[in-house]
Write a structure and sequence with these properties.
By secondary structure, the protein is mostly helical. The chain has helices at residues 3-22, 27-43, 49-66, 73-83. The chain is built from four helices and no strands. Helix 1 runs antiparallel to helix 2. The radius of gyration is 12 Å and the shape is globular.
Length: 89
């Protein structure tokens, strides 16, 4: 996938996850689980070291939140906010 298209796709994914972390109710965890699956796919593509590190952090924090094992929506949101600039043009 061309670099620009990949950056846009990952940025869209991160924005979806940020919205899920900000939302109230049960549907936000369902969206977060969907994003978790998409994050796993994104991690299997070519990324810079910084991009990979940021996405891996989001993946791990979001996974803990989805599994209710120590992660919080606020931690997910903060990790996403740190990662987004790495996927801008």
């Amino acid at each position: 996938m061309p670099d620009t298209v990949m950056k846009l796709a990952v940025r869209h994914l991160l924005l979806d996850l940020k919205d899920a972390a900000a939302a109230k109710g049960n549907s936000n965890r369902e969206t977060a689980q969907n994003c978790q699956d998409r994050l796993a796919l994104a991690l299997s593509t070519e990324l810079s070291a910084d991009q990979r590190k940021a996405l891996k952090q989001v993946f791990e924090i979001n996974g803990r939140w989805v599994r209710c094992s120590g992660g919080t929506a606020e931690r997910v949101r903060k990790a996403v906010e740190r990662a987004i600039p790495l996927f801008e043009h």
